[in-house]
Design goal:
about 650 residues, alpha+beta, seven-stranded antiparallel sheet, five-stranded antiparallel sheet, 27 strands, about 30% strand, disordered N terminus
């Protein structure tokens, strides 16, 4: 049966030699109602099957034992980019090169059922190929379809590109999370709901005296005997969020136990970490032996406490119950800029002013929080201390209540440390990962992130996004003649001029070498990109004064615009690059907007480049000599050498096609 035999109202699914009907039978006599009814039932069954294929959300193809496609739905057309009539009758290897055809039923097995049971699996991950040659990951679900002519295989084909990208992203995020754990100054462990340690950092190894492989998989009770495991999420609460809100606190003081059996006081900071397997708990564990010793020494023996506190590296600041300063150790004096004698009896807010680095707002009083909760209160994250001389420094620490011998509150001790250097190193590390080391401009990674965000926001803002790909003309000549140091300074000069040509909301990035890519994230019209491109060409062409050299250089720019020339960052950059090469071919010191025809020329150029490389190996070039004749005298006055190329499949390639590429 073919699509031309489809009854009115049947789904329009075409087939080639579809053996579901065993072809249309000859006319029956009126008295032969039994066969007539069976044919009607068979047609109705086929119609339902075709309807099910069309209604399927995934691409569906039916393949015979010879490996040919005999039926498909509209999703298969869309997914593989073929018109239906082109796919029908094709070998399935044309769209799934490897792994599918090999799983078709073998004729020599005892029965079709045995063959399917032995060879046809489910959830098979393979690679598929579209009509344009691009490949993408798929998940293949196979099921048998038996008829009179043998076993057919129905394949549901799902594009899992998004899922694969998400898995890669999750793996990247896990790597970053592990990196954050290792960078933490405190011991860090991650515990599952069963109370077992599933992740830890090197500080935890040092603090508890265990090698990493010995701690992994151990119950957390082995290192924190009481108080931690009991705070893990309870299964009988309404939700994980409710459990965490009710049971997971901050600044919990407990006892830790090392591998050698010795115990020491710790401060436990808990936070939830949700994943597919449930709620995990991340615990930051700080050895507070020094802090506890300091707090106990204050009410036990003042003189001994002062000696102890002055000898430790962390800054210690004490206040009375009214919030006035009673003690500063040497580290605290150095960090605040106040001496102990000058600071005594002054309000804590005057000696120890702290604020949020981002909002520049004064942070809540941790002294009051520590007294109210009767436990340690950590200083907020992103916290800076304003020194007496006005300088700022990043700090971290906590405030704890001080009790007298009767357990009454008599003040608060605040212990803090300068983390400016570590903070600066972290910021520099982040900056260096996202910026070009030579020019300081955003690199390819940061540009791709910003371009993806701009493309995502463009439909909501109803604006266009333009990408300008700039390449310097004949930059190699400057490197070869004046040296790479001069070339590097020229690149820096070009980068500065390009930044001056755009708005603060736009991005100028260096891709490497002498290539720069600009993102105009909020362009109203494509003409905006043309204005910026002209401005950049003029800026780059002005003389660059570098080490007593006045250097002149020009540039070529290609422009692509969202959504006309691409719907994602990679496509927009690629098409702008293609347009830039067209600008170079048209005389340099110019710009061109991307046109779809450029891709055809780019592919042709790439083909010629590959052919030229192989031509050398295959000895396809031939040298011809042509005399140069004086037309006045008729004498031969010279010879011209001409190269000719005879391609293995193209035949003679005209010089006008390959000489410019060569």
């Amino acid at each position: 049966m073919s699509i031309h035999d489809t009854a009115p109202g049947e789904p329009a699914i075409a087939s080639v030699g579809l053996p579901l009907t065993n072809m249309t039978p000859p006319p029956l006599a009126k008295s032969d109602e039994g066969p007539r009814r069976r044919i009607g039932e068979r047609r109705a069954s086929e119609k339902r099957y075709r309807g099910l294929l069309e209604a399927a959300p995934d691409a569906m193809v039916v393949v015979n034992q010879g490996g040919d496609i005999i039926l498909l739905n509209v999703q298969a057309e869309k997914q593989f980019g073929y018109p239906r009539d082109e796919l029908l009758g094709q070998p399935v290897k044309n769209i799934i090169p490897q792994g599918f055809a090999e799983r078709l039923v073998a004729d020599d097995l005892r029965s079709a059922e045995d063959a399917l049971a032995q060879q046809i699996g489910t959830g098979i991950e393979l690679t598929a190929r579209r009509k344009d040659g691009s490949e993408f990951p798929i998940e293949l679900m196979l099921s048998p379809l038996e008829n009179a002519e043998g076993i057919l295989v129905t394949a549901a084909i799902r594009d899992i590109s998004v899922r694969k990208a998400a898995e890669a992203h999750l793996a990247q995020m896990e790597g970053r999370y592990r990196g954050l754990l290792e960078a933490a100054p405190d011991a860090m462990v991650v515990v599952n709901q069963g109370g077992d340690i599933i992740l830890l950092n090197v500080q935890a190894e040092k603090q508890f005296g265990y090698p990493r492989d010995e701690l992994l998989g151990q119950p957390v009770k082995n290192i924190i005997p009481q108080g931690f495991a009991e705070r893990l999420v309870a299964d009988d609460l309404r939700s994980a969020e409710d459990a965490l809100a009710q049971q997971i606190g901050t600044g919990i003081e407990l006892i830790g136990r090392r591998k050698d059996g010795s115990e020491f006081p710790i401060e436990l900071m808990l936070s939830p970490l949700a994943n597919d397997e449930g709620i995990l708990v991340t615990a930051a564990i700080r050895d507070i032996s020094v802090r506890k010793a300091a707090a106990e020494a204050l009410f036990a023996e003042k003189e001994r406490a002062e000696v102890t506190l002055r000898s430790i590296g962390d800054a210690v600041l004490c206040t009375d119950i009214a919030g006035n300063i009673t003690f500063l150790n040497i580290a605290a004096e150095n960090m605040t800029g106040w001496s102990w004698r000058e600071a005594v009896d002054r309000p804590m807010a005057e000696v120890f002013p702290i604020m949020d680095a981002t909002t520049r707002q004064t942070t809540p009083n941790r002294m009051e929080m520590a007294l109210r909760q009767n436990r340690a209160a950590r200083l907020p994250p992103n916290c800076i201390l304003i020194r007496r001389d006005g300088l700022e420094m990043w700090i971290e620490g906590s405030a704890s209540p001080i009790h007298d011998s009767e357990g009454q509150d008599v003040g608060v001790v605040t212990i803090f440390r300068d983390v400016s250097e570590a903070r600066t190193m972290a910021l520099e590390k982040t900056h260096s990962a996202e910026h070009d080391f030579l020019t300081g401009l955003p690199n390819r990674l940061l540009l791709s992130d910003r371009l993806s965000q701009a493309v995502a926001l463009a439909p909501r803002r109803q604006n266009k996004v333009a990408v300008l790909f700039l390449d310097l003309d004949n930059f190699k000549h400057i490197n070869d003649s004046l040296g790479h140091p001069i070339g590097d300074k020229l690149l820096q000069s070009v980068g500065k001029r390009l930044v001056e040509c755009v708005r603060g909301s736009d991005t100028v990035s260096r891709q490497g070498g002498d290539e720069f890519v600009m993102l105009l994230s909020d362009a109203e019209h494509w003409e905006d990109a043309a204005v910026v491109a002209r401005r950049m060409l003029e800026a780059v062409a002005r003389a660059h004064s570098i080490d007593r050299h006045d250097l002149h250089i020009t540039a070529s720019i290609g422009v692509s615009v969202y959504p006309d020339d691409g719907l994602d960052a990679e496509t927009l950059i690629k098409n702008a690059d293609t347009a830039m090469y067209q600008a170079k071919e048209n005389g340099r010191q110019s710009f061109r907007f991307f046109e779809p025809e450029m891709n055809v020329r780019a592919v042709e150029r790439q083909s010629i480049e590959e052919g030229l490389r192989r031509a050398l190996e295959r000895h396809e070039f031939a040298l011809h000599y042509q005399p140069i004749v004086d037309l006045g005298t008729g004498a031969i006055i010279g010879t011209e050498a001409l190269i000719r190329w005879t391609h293995a499949t193209r035949g003679v390639v005209p010089p006008v096609q390959f000489i410019p590429v060569a």
